[in-house]
Write a structure and sequence with these properties.
- It is a single chain.
- The strands form 3 sheets. Strands 1, 2, 3, 4 and 5 form a 5-stranded antiparallel sheet that branches.
- By secondary structure, this protein is α+β, with helices and mostly antiparallel strands.
- The longest helix is centred in the first third of the chain and has 15 residues.
Length: 153
């Protein structure tokens, strides 16, 4: 096999995704190109190894990278769905003990959350119950501690 580089880009209309895969005898090329696509085009953090394997006929093969940017993220919706299909809702908090600010994704019946920094227990409150709207402008369903949904007060 000559020192050729192969780039395969596949568009899947059903899943609305693009998949990139690189192969070459030059592992540095595969690493560099896979990392480039992952970081610049898909916004993934750098991976320790972008090389998925080696094939004696095709050379080094890069990991397949799929663009799922069309999917709504929990950041934009305020909802995460776990592996069992259960929805968890974002609760934004400012810890009254240490002033750490963060998010938890919680079930509707959670009574207390812990501060990520100091483990202080904080009671989450429903934005809908307290303010009559489902979410605040940041798509938080719950709030806790010293956080006040400023767009609702």
């Amino acid at each position: 096999m000559s020192n050729e580089h192969k780039v395969v880009i596949t568009k899947n209309e059903t899943e609305n995704s693009l998949t990139f895969q690189f192969s070459s005898e030059d592992s540095a090329f595969v690493e560099r190109m896979t990392e480039e696509v992952m970081t610049k085009y898909f916004g993934y953090e750098k991976n320790k190894s972008a090389v998925r394997g080696f094939d004696k006929y095709r050379g080094y093969i890069g990991a397949k990278i799929s663009d799922k940017s069309h999917e709504k993220s929990s950041f934009s919706t305020g909802i995460r769905v776990n592996d069992y299909g259960k929805e968890k809702f974002r609760c934004h908090y400012i810890c009254p003990n240490c002033n750490n600010e963060g998010n938890h994704y919680i079930d509707e019946n959670v009574k207390l959350i812990n501060c990520h920094e100091c483990s202080y227990k904080i009671k989450p409150l429903s934005i809908e119950t307290e303010y009559g709207v489902r979410v605040d402008k940041y798509n938080n369903y719950y709030y806790a501690g010293n956080y006040v949904p400023s767009d609702l007060v």
